[in-house]
């Protein structure tokens, strides 16, 4: 299996633990990730100002992957949505792909619309497969229980993802967690948005939104929240101290990226999964896993 | 609650929205309010109320809508859009309203700043010295080449917004 890895803006600057763990997990599973240096921002922040400019940025990135004959995997859910939304837009609005290609000529690019865009988690779930992951698990994480955070753009809009997972009752990330041996908890507010998109517009609203989720995850007694989007992690981890201060609460809740969790079950060392880069240390969680599990009798 | 003044309403507003991608289905709304009860922003901020915003557009309250901060308050979570029984693509509608505001020269500062960063670096965040840190943990270097992105933004008039904020720096 071979994909172009689309990093976007946030992962390679603020989510190095995500990138490191995803790359090492992919290597362990025999999935080849190709870097295309010329990739830029996906276009997501620009769409609010001018949708066509955003779609052209997306198309330019997609055209570069298509030129190399590669489908794309992404780590950021907003990148996933923007690139896939562009694909959907070109299919459903006749003429838009031709207009786009006229503008891509100056970059020596053409986009035929063939690139399949998938989130890294979806690729693991759908293409690599839960059964195949199961075969590679060497250290089941049976001592811990975690809360899956799907975020918004991983499942929605469902029309662009061919109804891959049900946003009202999603299951794919729970299955990806359970295959590691960890328990995936059911908790209130599971479907809620992190609020990251409005952090710069009205900070207090965004903090309230993240707080609602953190409260519910603590209530469920999770050892960690499992994230698959760098901006959700910026909210839950990067702003956790800020929320604790603002609302006079204490969480100290570790926020792990899914590949960090999977990596542990695959026997990869925490240092190679970027655990040192987590702002809220997962010390207690790692200690729970330090003792060898009881042999099955 | 402010009284609505009929003489200030602009019926052409709803036409403009309907002609903007994402805004087309707005007249299908039958005001059930599923969007507002699904909205995670509305839960904490009464100012952002999708049903009310849709109704304001349908009434033709152009100035009130386009000059408001609430136009920029959609978190883009898509919950309302997924649940709307009338297939009003509300998330896309909010995107359309922002695009229309920009066309009329109204841009929220936060989006201006983002455009500025993307114009400078081709990305939302500068990589710069971070490449050294990346190298230390065996991550490949990131290329920073804003030229093609600048061309795209300039082509669509977004470059102007970006340059304005860069010059203010």
Topology overview:
The complex is a heterodimer of chains A (297) and B (169).
Chain A (H helix, E strand, L loop, with lengths): L1 E5 L4 H4 L1 H14 L2 E4 L8 H4 L3 H17 L3 E4 L2 H16 L3 H9 L12 E3 H17 L8 E4 L23 H7 L4 E3 L17 H17 L4 E4 L2 H9 L1 H8 L7 E3 H8 L17 H6 L9
Parallel strand pairs in A: 1-2, 1-3, 3-4, 5-6, 5-7, 7-8
Helix pairs in contact in A: 2-12, 4-5, 7-8
Chain B lengths: L11 H7 L15 H5 L11 H10 L2 H5 L12 H5 L6 H14 L5 H13 L8 H7 L10 H9 L2 H11 L1
Q: State the share of residues found in helices of chain A, binned by percent.
A: 40-55%
Protein structure class of chain B: mainly alpha
The shape of chain A is: globular
Report how far apart the termini of chain B are. 39 Å
- Uncertain residue segments of chain B: none
What is the number of strand segments of chain B? 0
Order of helices and strands of chain B: HHHHHHHHHH
